[in-house]
Amino acid sequence: ENKFQLPAYKLIVEAGLTSTGSEARRIIEQRGAKVEDEYISNGNQLLDYSKPITLKVGKRKIVKIRPKSD
């Protein structure tokens, strides 16, 4: 398992875009979340952030996620 991979719903919560996993899953189900301008189809989809990615929830919440170097 790559240490720079998380399920989509967890990454959304970790990024502070939603406060709970349930909220993140609901937004994903309603096609309100995108990664690199592609809709996230499944909350359990693993997102790889070993290189910087753009995560968007709704119209106004946009975050650039970069890998954290130890």
Describe this structure in words.
Helices cover 23% and strands 30% of the residues. With 70 residues, it is an alpha+beta fold. The two termini are 17 Å apart. The radius of gyration is 11 Å and the shape is globular. Helix 1 crosses helix 2 (21-29). Strands 3-2-5-6 form a 4-stranded antiparallel β-sheet.
How do you describe this structure in short?
With 70 residues, the chain is α+β, with helices and mostly antiparallel strands. It is 23% helix and 30% strand.
Number of helices: 2
What characterizes the major β-sheet?
A: 4 strands, antiparallel
Query: Low-confidence runs (pLDDT<50, min 5 residues)?
Result: none
In N-to-C order, the SSE pattern is: EHHEEEEE
Distance N terminus to C terminus? 17 Å
How much of the residues is beta strand, in percent? 25-35%
Name the shape in a single word. globular
What is the average of the pLDDT values?
Answer: 91
- Structural category is alpha+beta
Percentage of helical residues?
10-25%
Strands of the biggest beta sheet: in what spatial order? 3-2-5-6
- Give Rg in angstroms: 11 Å
Quick one: how many beta strands?
Answer: 6
